[in-house]
Amino acid sequence: MELILKTKGDVQASALFVPVLEERLAILKLLKSLGYEEEEALIDRLNRENFQGKKGQSFILISAAKVVVLLGSGQQKTLSVDNWRELAGQIVAYLKTYSVRDISLVASHWLRGNQDIKHLGQSLVEGLMLANYQFNKYKQDDKNQIKVDIKTVSVYLSAREKISFTKGWEYGQLLAHATILARDLVNEPASIMTPSFLAKEAIKVAGASRRVKVNILEKADVKKLGMEAFMAIDRGSNEPLKFIHLVYKPKGKAKDKIAIVGKGITFDSGGLNIKPWEGMQQMKNDMSGAATVIGLFSALDKIQPKVEIHGIIAACENMPSGTAIKPGDVVFNMDGKSIEIAHTDAEGRVTMADALSYAQKQGIKKIVDVATLTGAVVYALGPNYAGLFANNKKLTDSLLKYSELAGEKIWPLPLAEEYRDFNKSKIADIRNIASSKLGGAITAALFLQDFIKPDVAWAHLDIAGVSYAEEPLNSYTPIGGVGFGVRALLEWLADF
Ligand code: BES
Ligand code: MG
Ligand code: ZN
């Protein structure tokens, strides 16, 4: 996909894409301005096809000279960054039916009320690349399917807009590649995507980056560190556990030291409290938090944030077997806190307890964790919003800001003090399931918070609902792994 920037001249050949409002008069005016001769016939067809400019609709104008595609953008008078991404995704949907390889855009058509030219370039390329993503390595080549292969994107803009647009375009490519890596990792079946495979992916990323180093801790190493909680969850599995620690160091003095901790259960069968088949079906995605960490790290060398970043993943499987952890067992995390394992399917919080303690042992005072932690958050927020829990207002505000920009929706939920006692155990310091079935996403977050020191700014993203799209989430997020959080967190880290 080659970007060609033009400042003047007629829009040539290829297909020109123009977003339009859901407003009949505006559409008619636009048709007029495009100068088609048979206007009557066009309006007639507009009526017959019932094109109103609604989101997702498109209307095609073909003349000998050119193809113009109107993209419905609904009632959005001012286009947001995520609207641009969505519209770019609509372009790809169009190209799946009509195989056009050269596309054109006029920036002024797209800037509608929003002059942020850098983000226009960025979100357009993100939308095009992400909408075109497919995980088909296990499929035979389908000869009848039209492959979208965009050769050139010609953009018409003013000379002074060129630099910003190009910057955004290049940055957007980085974010899209990182998201795609995370999607690939999530989509890979669990028998391939083992803790060892995940560790190899982290080693690959570090190998390709000058400023990223990785340390893989084996079972003996985590034992020495006292990670009995993590080891307990791994006990039923035949796959060796891996504790992955990635570090990015910036050029010069780091402005801050931050950890991104990802849940890395490569398959969650539930353990002895085994899941029913529907519940277990998609559980290869229980390492989505880890995928976000690795995807994000793959872009750090090029984005060059000014902060030191630690990526931390406790990777193992949760399996039932004769050696598996049993309900009622008590284990100590590396900080010496005892945990009653009342339910083996609430395994994520147990492995995270050690991963979070480990992060704090590195002297890190700012932590974001990303975890497919609870089914409850899916009931609370559905498939498009991740739950955000945080002990720090500033962190909450910036994560909300960057997630909106990235089109990765999150919504704040409370660390409700009223419910903290639900996690009390009769025989240990804490219990891994709450006494109440209600507010499950909250009690899980409160469990994690028990392992966070009060002087540490911490945010927890429960991505159980958003990590895997059962249906396309939007025009640029097809079915499968979403790679959720990669773009928002990269944007956040890049802005220090
Ligand atoms: N990995 C699951 C959570 C999950 C659910 C992720 C749906 C993605 C989609 C987690 O380990 C789990 O099993 N949680 C249990 C906790 C319960 C036993 C307290 C749940 O949510 O049912
Ligand atoms: Mg579980
Ligand atoms: Zn799980």
Briefly characterize the structure:
The chain has 496 residues and is an alpha/beta fold. The chain has helices spanning 24-33, 39-48, 81-97, 107-110, 117-131, 162-187, 195-207, 219-224, 228-234, 277-280, 288-303, 348-361, 375-381, 393-406, 440-449, 486-494, and strands spanning 2-6, 15-20, 58-62, 67-72, 102-106, 152-156, 212-217, 242-248, 257-268, 308-318, 329-332, 338-341, 366-371, 386-390, 410-412, 430-431, 457-462, 468-469, 480-481. It folds into two domains: 2-172, Leucine Aminopeptidase, subunit E, domain 1 (3-Layer(aba) Sandwich); 188-494, Aminopeptidase (3-Layer(aba) Sandwich), CATH 3.40.630.
Number of strands: 19
Low-pLDDT segments: none
Computed Rg: 25 Å
Please describe the biggest sheet, giving its number of strands, its sense, and whether it closes into a barrel.
8 strands, mixed
- Determine the CATH topology of the largest domain: Aminopeptidase
User: CATH superfamily name of the largest domain?
Assistant: Zn peptidases
Give the name of the CATH architecture of the largest domain. 3-Layer(aba) Sandwich
Shape: elongated
Mean pLDDT: 95
| Helical residues, percent | 25-40%
DSSP summary: helix tally: 16
Bound ligands: ligand BES, magnesium ion, zinc ion
Strand order of the largest sheet: 7-8-10-9-13-17-14-15
Residue share in β-strands: 15-25%
Gap between N and C termini, in Å? 31 Å
Domain tally: 2
Please identify the structural class as seen in this structure: alpha/beta
